[in-house]
Amino acid sequence: MVHFEPQDDAAERADAGLAPVTYLPGAAPGMKRRSPLQPRPVDGVTDIEGPPAAAVAAGADEADTDPRVSDHTDDDANDEADFDADADADADALDERERAEKVLLHRLRGRSLSTVEALLVLGATGVDSGEASEIIEKFTELNYLDEAKLADQIIHSHNVRKGLGRTGVEAEMRRRKLDPGVMLDKLEELPDDEAERVIDLATKRIAQMERFDDQTIDRRLTGFLMRKGYSSTLVRLAVKAAMDSRGGGGGSRVRFR
């Protein structure tokens, strides 16, 4: 049997006419080439599954201290807080508006209101002008606020029942702050019978003054009719007609109280 002995690598290269191989420090024949990205062995053990634990820890610390990460988190928290604050504000505003509507509705159950009067009521509840305008518009559409209807009520109560003249009715409409256009239209609808009305009123009133002398009757009746809103011309006409209706012809007579 022929037995071959392995020849030294240097001898083989010499026989082949090649220059001998010179190894770098730490290298030896038969060692495998290591990738620059491969971690160096520690105590003979090489971790090929991933970066060293120290690098992972360092990366985690860097992420914890990265201002971009923390700022983003803070922004999210602030946005959420702002959203909650806005939601609470909206809820409060809704509650305030509902309270204002209830207050106005309660007042309207007592009597009719003009638009200006309704705005004054809403202003006292604390709602802003924008909310108040929206409530007025809503109540107008629902016919809860109707200035034409209010004007008719004033005419009935002051002209028909109380006997006030055009001037007196107009004064009451102005006091209630009705819209000028509505007020003018309704005053034009009044019947043109003020002369008859004031004479009738004076005649009924003078019947309660029989115990006074003519001068006192004239003074008191004139003041009464003027307060009713009739013009001075109509008042003088009515006073004379009322005194003539007694049969005295408006002459001066002495009467005892």
Structural description of this entry:
By secondary structure, the protein is mostly helical. 63% of the residues lie in helices and 0% in strands. The protein is built from eleven helices and no strands. The longest helix is centred in the middle third of the chain and has 44 residues. The termini are far apart.
How many DSSP-defined strands?
A: 0
Q: Name the helicity range.
A: 55-70%
**What is the CA-based Rg, rounded?**
53 Å
The overall average pLDDT, rounded, is 77
Rough outline? elongated
Low-confidence stretches: 44-49, 249-257
Compact description:
With 257 residues, this protein is mostly helical.
Which structural traits does this protein have?
257 residues; disordered C terminus
Question: Which secondary structure elements does this structure contain, and how are they paired or packed?
Answer:
Blueprint: H1 9-15, H2 53-65, H3 67-110, H4 115-125, H5 129-141, H6 147-161, H7 166-175, H8 180-188, H9 194-206, H10 214-227, H11 232-244
